Every structure is written in C-alpha cells, then in structure tokens.
Structures
1.
Amino acid sequence: MPVLVASDLDRTLIYSSAALALTMPDARAPRLLCVEVHESKPLSYMTETAAGLLGELGDAAVFVPTTTRTRKQYLRINLPGPPPKYAICANGGHLLVDGVSDPAWHARVTARLADECASLDEVRVHLAATADPVWVRKHRIAEDLFAYLVVERELLPEEWVKELAVWAENRGWTVSLQGRKLYAVPKPLTKSAAMHEVARRTGAELTLAAGDSLLDADLLLAADRGWRPGHGELADTDWTAPTVTALPERGVLAGERTLREFLRAVRS
C-alpha cells in the first residue's frame, strides 16, 4: 500500500528570505535553491540537500503539497522531483488533480461551510470595520473561502488579535497569525478532510504530515505520524500531541530535517 505524505509548504518545506534563519557563519550556510519566483523576483527557497530529499520522497511515496495558498499562489511554486498528482490548496477548499481543481470536492466543501459557520461576508465586514489602517497593509479574500490581512507585525495590537479570535470562535471561524499575514478561516475548512480524501483515492494506509501553524494542527492530528519545526505558531505555544514530533531545527534547516524524517518513516 502507498504511503501518503501531506506537508505544509511555507515555513515548513519552503522559506522566504526573511524566514530562512541562517544563524550559522556565512561560510557554513547551506547552498539554497530558489523554488518560487514572483513578479520576476526570487521569493521562496529550500536547501539543495532538501531538494534532493524531496525528489527521493516523490519517488517513494504519494507526496501531497498541502497549503493555505490559493491555487494561483501554489502553481507558481516549482518544487523539485516528480510533479505531484494531488495538491491541497486554500486550506482544503480545493483539491487539485493534475493541477486542476476537482469540482465535486469543492462543491462538498462550500456546502459544508454554508451549513456550519458564519458567512465570509460577515467576517469581511467585521475585519474592515475593526482593523486599523495604521497597521493593515492589505485586505484580501482568498478563493471566496476565507479572508486574510497583510499587517505591519510590529504595530499589530496583541489585544486586537485576541478579541478577533474570540469573535471568530463564536461564529465557527479560526484566527491564525503567520508572519505578516493574519488569517480568518472557517473551522470546517480543513487540510485534514482533503488529506483523508486523497488517502481514500490512493488506498494509502499510512499517512504522514508536517506543518508549523495553527492551521496545520488538524492535519498533524489526523495523520498517523506528524512533525513540526522549532518555529511557528505551534512551537511558540509548545503545542504537541502523542503522534507528533517536535523538531529542534528552525528555519530552512527544519525543512531539510522534516524531509529526512519523512523518508525514514516511508522506508521503514
């Protein structure tokens, strides 16, 4: 039976220049491979060693990139290794099969959102009314499924984030702060549900996962085994679970370590 590996991308396998955490002396820094270009500029990286490991993983398991990114944002990433047949985008709102969204899956997700939580429009209006332009750079709606703000992190009031989280919780939504992005996501919109669907389609009996943020917690809990890096929302709160391993590495080297762990588990 195949092994399914569902991994978050940003700050788990791939890293912006700001998230690399290259704390070693310059002469000992790892060689980096650019895996994403945006507006003609390099945007995301992994180590060359990690790139080789990902190529091996793609040959040994069903590798499923699993991201909160929109389809457009995901498709500009050029990952090493064989092209994944499946990818999970928009936090589970879109299941891509050979790069194309499965309409039946998307319809199931949107029907569930309509039944189980407050509308996107209500959340959008609340964010517009309460977020201060002093620290908000952009308001964004992703795939008509969830909302996020691009913020000036050093100016963002912690108390406002806490109040928003309580307001959202009462309406069936979750708030997650990742770098300069603050996400408001419906609770029924999950990476884990999409992972289970891919496992059903592929016949995978063992599922492995990795992620760094609050939005990855359901994915890690749903997998048979999971890993989280030493940075991110989950690490900041010392979040763990019996089947989840907390890795000590931070930054781009955590991505390399995660891929080693995936390969070790697949091969054993």
2.
Amino acid sequence: MSLPSPYLLFIGDATDPLSIKMAKSAADWSPEKCVGEFALPGCEVSTGHPRLSIQEGVSKGAKAFVLGFANSGGVLDAHLVKPIMEALDAGLDIINGLHDKVADIPEIAEKAQALGRRLIDIRHPTTKFKTGKGNPRAGKRLLTVGTDCSVGKMYTTLSLAKAMQAAGMKATFRATGQSGILVAGAGVAVDCVVSDFIAGAVEALCPANDEDHWDLVEGQGSLYHPAFAGVSLGLLHGAQPDALVICHALKREHMRGIPGRPLPSLQQVIDMNLVCAKVTNPNVRVIGVSVNTSAVSEQESLDYCATVTQELGLPCVDPIRHGVQPLLELLV
C-alpha cells in the first residue's frame, strides 16, 4: 500500500525528543512530504516544522495524519483518540506506527468506514513470511547495529544510502521499523514479525541482487538490550551482512528504559555482533563506528571520534555533524 502524503505530523503532548522519532524522521528525511506538525497542550518538543491546527494542515494540502510519537509498548493512550477522530472528520487518512492498531479501536474504525478514510497501521506487516535459511545470496549488505536502541541506526543507514547514491553506487535503503517505512514508503517493521520468521522476513526484504549492489539495512535494538535483543539477532542472521557499522549515543547514561543497566563498551558490541553475524556470513567485518554526539560540543565530538579511531583502529564519525565519507571510502 502506498502511503498518502503530504503528512500532518501529530506529536501529541510529548516531552521527550526521542519519543517523537517517527515524526522527526519524516521531518528530517522527507521534508517535502510534511506540511507541519500538530501538538496538544503540554508538548515540549518539535520536529522543526510549522505548528498548525488540523484545519490549517488540511488547507496546506495534508492528506494524512501521521501518529508520529512512540512510547514503551507502542500503546495509544485514550486521550489521543479525540484528535484522531477530528482528523478523520477533516478529511485525513491516518498513518499509525504504534503497536496498538487504530483499526482495532471501535470508534475510530467506525468513523473511518463511515467517511471512507484509510487507517494504515504500518507497523503490522500483511505479508506471510517464511523462516530464514541463511543460504549465501548475491549482492552486498550493510547492517547498522547498536550499543542500545534509539542511538542513530536509522539516521546512519539513511546517511550512508544517500552518500552512496550520490557517489553513483548501487545502494538501496531497507526500512525495518515504522519510522524508516514512513521515510522510504516501504519496508517491514520486524518488531511485529513473529519471532520464528524475523530472519526470513529480512531475507525477503533484501534478496539476492547484483554483485555490486548494496542493501543498507536499518538496524533495530541491541544485542545487549534485554527487551529487544531477539529482534537484533534476527536482523543479523537475515541480513547476512558483509559490513557492520556500530552505532552509539554519547552521554547515554543507561540502557533506554532500564535505569541502572549500563551500556556495553564499543569493543563488547563489536565482539558480540561479529560472533552472531558469522552464523550466516563468516566474512562479515565491522567497518566503522557512528556516534550521535548531539549532547556535546563540536570540539568534544571531534575529540571523542579521534579517540575511538585511535583505540579501535576504525573510522568514527557523527553522520549528521561530520558526514560519512570515511565509512564510504571503505565500501567503494
């Protein structure tokens, strides 16, 4: 199903910038598809796009009301139903990236049917997948992996895809989460695939291709995060990556959502991911480190990346601040 656009990005009453990552991803990577954002009283964050009412969004051409927020468990809070109903009344389709399906909420489903609006729950794949086989296949694949969830795996993957395409390389971004799907317009949200079929779903997402073609596969979670390690492992086996990029968020004090649980070291993440990835590709290698350094100054960012490069012997960049040229040079 093609996603209707332009989007009016609904960010609710969010106070944590990471909680609107779906809206922010669309705003950053598909700005031409976004007319603005709609927020509720108490919202303390922004995508950077103009703040509009629902009617103003419609007058500017919006076709879809995007639920651009996330929370632990992907639950749709009851107080958010009213603005969704208002968006339907205003003529907008609904694009939802939460685990909770808007199509399962009776009053929303009834109104959408009565008005002829679409309810698009992009996190829930409709394809029937097979189990993974791990057989060698043509083409090349890169997967981003992390010290934690929400550390910049999608932004790193999109940055690499954009740079490789600009350099004339055959490269395709493969979305594996709701935010990436909203940007790319296609993909599979692997955290909603039955666990036995995750590897098979990823094999289907990035099948055999030309020998010089790269699939840039968006990573999810972390092998070190108790909640999401299963998805991370399925991605490693299904992507059968030739190259890995380690992603990290500087100044992250603990695993997201688990106070008191420290993040692993970069070396631990390298070692663990290589062991797991070699199950389906014995020749996999780590080509570099990508760090979200937004919590520190430009000079601190440069100093940290230089230290990592010296300690690990791998290029280290912040893809937003520094670009990805050192990583690209290893893939050409």
3.
Amino acid sequence: MMLLGLSAAGPGHGAPAARSAPQVVPDTPGTGPYSARKYVDPTLPDHVLYQPADLAALGGRKLGLLVWGNGACSDDGASVRLHLAEIASHGYLVIAPGRVLSGPGAPPRPQTPPPPGPLGVRTTTAQVAAGIDWAVAENERRGSPLYHRIAPRMVAVSGHSCGGLQALEIAADPRVHAVIVHNSGVFKDGTNPIRGITIDKSALRRLHTPILYVMGGPSDIAWPNGNDDFDRIDTVPALLASLDVGHGGTFDAPNGGRAAAIDVAWLEWQLRGDRRAGDWFRGSACRLCTDPAWTIRKKRID
C-alpha cells in the first residue's frame, strides 16, 4: 500500500472540478475516534481509499463501507479528501474512483490548464461500484488487512453533483443499505447532457433504502432537480436537508464542514442503528429541524 500523507465539482453536474480543497491544505485525520489515512492500494490502483489508520484500534467493531462518486464524475479521488477522511475516522472504509490529483500526493498542476471540453464523465458508475466488489472480496481474502474487518450489510453509496447521479444509479444494488446524494438530482426536464451518464426519473422507483439529499439552497444549480426527486420519491423514507452554501457544499471546510457531520449521522443511523444519530433527523424537534441554518423536508422519516 502506498500512503499519501494524512497527518468537486464545478458549476454544473458535469463541469470540470474547479473547487477542490486548496493545494496548501494538508490532509487531516478527521475528528472521529479513529484517525484516518488516505492511500492507494496496488490491487485497486485506479481508486483512492480512506480508512482508520490503526485497524486494531477498532477492536471488534466492523468497518462500514462507503463508495463515493466524485463531483463532475472526475478522476480526482482526492477532490473532497477532507470530507471523506472525516467519514473514515468514524469507522468507515471510503473508496473514491480515480487518482490523487489535488492536495498532498498530487502531481504538479500544469501552468496553463487545458480548456474545458464538453460535459462528460472521467470515471464511470461501474468504476464507483467496483469499490464495493473490491471491498467485499478483500473482506473474504485471507491475508488481506481488511479480512473480516468489513460488515457486509453496512454498505452505502454517496456522491456529489454528477457523482450524485452515479450514486442514484448504484442505489438499486441490493448490497446498498444507505444512500446520500449531495447537490444533485436527476435532470428535471428529462434531458441528459452528460456523456457517459444514462439515468432518468425511473431510477427513483428502484430505490430500496432510505435516502438523504444534502443541497446547497436555491443558488445550488441542482436545486430544482434534487427537490423534484424528493417530490417524486414515494416508496422509501426520504429527507432533504439544505444549507444555503451553493453547489460547492462544505467540502472544503475543515473536516468536510457541516455536510460531513450530517453524512456521519445518517450512516451511523442507517447502517449501525444508532438511535442518537437518528435524533439528527427524526421527530419535529430533530437536531436539524431545530437548527435555523438548515431547511428540512422529509417524508416517512418520523
């Protein structure tokens, strides 16, 4: 394993990542009980992994698994590294497709960036889902550091913007038991302007597990799409939480900011059955419901 030094989307669903964490910001270990590390495993070289640095510190606690779709469906698996390390520090293996193209461990950026091309994916939905296949296999491979460390039913999928559409595609996988969509939603007008993504509102009917949308308020370009998704979902519990920060979310804030805290609570509630984590979302006096910074919509949650 190659350690990468723990101590993205643009304005639209498919725009090149323009707001990744600043290059000068060091990787951080997260605020959870298990300091996280970022690394590339040679058996999965086209992905970036985040996990507790000391697996022995988990004791008998099993890792949850989160696979992540990058903003702009980019190939920068470190584009929201602070956010993903924060989740990992709470006892999760997090896998993002691509390479380390921003922050510590990234190659130098070209002095003259290439001009933006047409909307299209650099990592596919299949590449995101491959993280599940790899982790499941490693969990059963004798000699793997992850041998019997992962709880097979504690699998979640998430993603930002274009990566959120990938998450919605993967959400139908019966191995998935929690879904989080950031600043995204299936295009409301029925168009599909991103090459490499084939999804329509019928994907919402294939959901089989509760889903959380984290949006950036009316200035979020995905605002109409995410809210329309929420309106159409009628078979599973759904919650839409919005913080008025725009399409970029809080990914660049220390430890992923307020959105990362919500993700951790959702995962702990949905995957581990933690009732205290559920208090963030459940009831009229839920933690998010009583926080004036957040706007909440929910159905079948209480």
4.
Amino acid sequence: MTVTVEKRGAASKTRRQVTGNRPRRDSYALFLLPGALAFLAVIVLPFAMNTGVSFTDWQGVGTPGADDWTGLENYRELLDDSEFWASFRHSLFMVVAMAAVPTVVGLVLAAALFDYVGKHFGTKTVAVLRACFYLPQVLPIAVAGIVWSWILAPENGSLNELLKAVGLGSWQQDWLGDPDLALYTVMAILVWVQLGFPLVVFMAGLQRVDPQLYEAAELDGAGWWRRFWHITLPQIRPETYVVLTWCSIAALKVFGAVYVLTKGGPGGATNVPSYFSFTTFFEKTQVGYGAAISTVLTIVILALSLLGLKLQTRAEDAEEGLRT
C-alpha cells in the first residue's frame, strides 16, 4: 500500500509539474496586444474618423462643426454621380487586368515551368524565368509608370518607332492620350505588373502536390493539358482563392499606376474610385464627399475580403474531407 501511494503521489506531482509548465492561454494575448494596438491606431481609428467626416460638408479647413453636418447627403449624391459610377466600372476592368488575366496566365505558366521546363531544362532555368516574371512586382510603380510612359509616348515613343520600323506605321497610336485606348493600355501594363505574384504563389502551391499523381497520370498516357486540368487545378484550389482575393483587392484600390500614367484621363477614361477620392479631397477640397467615396470603397473591399476568406475556408475544408 505504501508503494502504491508513493507512486500515485509521484505521478500526481509529475502531472502538476507538466500542467504548471504549460503556457496559459491568457499569455497569448500579450503577444497579440502590440499588433492589435497598431491595427486600432492605423486602421480602425482613421477609418472611423473618415466615416464621420463623410457625413459632413467639411472643406478641410479648421474643425468640422455642427453647421457642417449633412447626414447622408453625400451618399445620396453619390447615387446620382455619373463620374462615381464610371470610376467603379473602370475598377471592374482593373479587376480583369489585375486578377482574372494574371490568375489564368500565371497558373498556366506556373504549371508549365513546374511540370515541363523543370524536367527538360533544370531548376536553374525555372528559377531565372520565375525571377524575370516577378521582377515587375519589385519595381516601384512610379518607376515602372514613367518608363512605360516613355515607351508609349505618341512622338518618339519606343513602341510607335518600332511599329514604324517594321512597316506598321498605320498602327501608331496615342496609347495613353486616346480615350478609346487609354483604359486598355493601362490594363495591359497592369497585367505585366501583376503577373509575377500569381505565378510565384502557384509554383509554391505546386510544391505540395504529390509527384506520384503526375507520374501515374503520365503512365496512363495523359498529356500535359490533361494533367494540368485534372490534377493541377483541383490540387491548388486554395491558392487560387488566395490569388483571386488578393489581386481583386489590389485592383479595387489601384492608385499609383493611374496617377503616374494618366491621372485619370483623358476625359476621365481611366478614373478609378481611389483616384476619384484623391482628386475630390485635395484638388476640389470637398473633403466630406471624398470621405464618402473612400468609405464606400473600403466597405466594398471588406466585403470582397470576407467573401474570399469564406470561399478559401470552404475549399480547404473540402480538401481536408477528401483526405480523410
């Protein structure tokens, strides 16, 4: 009996020691506190102040008072503002240029680099090509925009001079100055800028795909396209949702490229909500109205983010269910 009691006492003592060394759940809050305070100071508080200003007719001078309060008047005005709705229509084009096209092209290129180029030309060639595709992401958008404005200049621009040199002088255009071409030109540049991000994410996702799936499909006679359609696409579905969500958010809040290339012109042909809000704030000094534009844009981006997270979670749960 004595021996049993001693063993139980020792086991109980050991259990208490293990439990005592286990970190308390409350201690994790200490690590989250700095980030939470930064998020509150940098995101939540400015957004709350911006939302408050959006209910006023404040011109940006002094402090908004009771006389500046207009309630929902700015938002009612937005509903009838054709320039506001045109800017959001342009944002849909930006989503195509920065999310849809780079996702599709980046996925195909990533699969080709991973499944074909890597096998036939080696990993060094893949690394060099991947770095070349990703290089526009590293360049500051101001630098890239200035370089492209030189290339696309109507007089002595590299593109027009090249077209003239190869006998296609009739194709010369004012690429950024023509209202019918400017939006599509900016879209093409944004495809070039954005393509590297999906490609890198998809190549990282392909690393976790079981190589035996490709080997089995290849032994069964499946070509590259069938392997891509039946193996690659289903396996990297979570990465696809991440890329689409991230790139769509970047497209909705795009500002730098429009500011450097066209400044929303010509004639508002490339105006987007972020640039529209900027000009309303600082050029027209209609701070309350500009705040309403940015508030609506923030709500749209937040809703899109929540939808993307929900779709991503659903895809991950479905993938986990298939594994079990």
